[in-house]
Amino acid sequence: MIHVGLTHFLFISSILFSLGIFGIVTRRNAVMVLMGIELMLNAANINFIAFARYGNFGLQGQIMALFVIVVAAAEAAIALAIVLNIYKIFSTVNVDEIDTLKD
């Protein structure tokens, strides 16, 4: 029988965080960059929950994970509104093609 320990959670979290970094660095599309940020936030949530479980921190890890989920939802709503406005102005969502700021 396999015992799932803290190292397993940290390994999965590091893979998710690495995929998020890879998505941010390699993608040109703003929506894909936002998805990379969400992957990184989910990796942080896994770490909070794992350390709360195996470090005997009580409910502090779960509370921090809920806070991160709320912040991520607000970030996604605001970021998608910004992306929609950028698309309306520039007719593209590629981050490397948007190089001017206009009012």
Summarize the structure.
The chain has 103 residues and is mainly α. Helices cover 75% and strands 0% of the residues.
Textual characterization of the structure:
The protein has 103 residues and is mostly helical. The chain has one domain: Helix Hairpins (Orthogonal Bundle). Helix content is 75%, strand content 0%. The protein has three helices and no strands. The chain has helices at residues 6-26, 30-54, 60-90.
Question: How many separate helices?
Answer: 3
Q: Round the Cα radius of gyration to an integer and report it.
A: 17 Å
What is the fold named in CATH at topology level? Helix Hairpins
For the terminal residues, how far apart are their CA atoms?
A: 62 Å
Order of helices and strands: HHH
* Helix-strand makeup class: mainly alpha
Largest sheet: none
- % residues in beta strands: under 5%
Number of strands: 0
Overall structural domain count:
1
CATH architectural category:
Orthogonal Bundle
**Judging from the principal axes of the Cα atoms, what is the shape?**
elongated
Provide the low-confidence segments as ranges. none
Mean pLDDT: 89
CATH top level is Mainly Alpha
Helicity level, as a percent range? Answer: over 70%
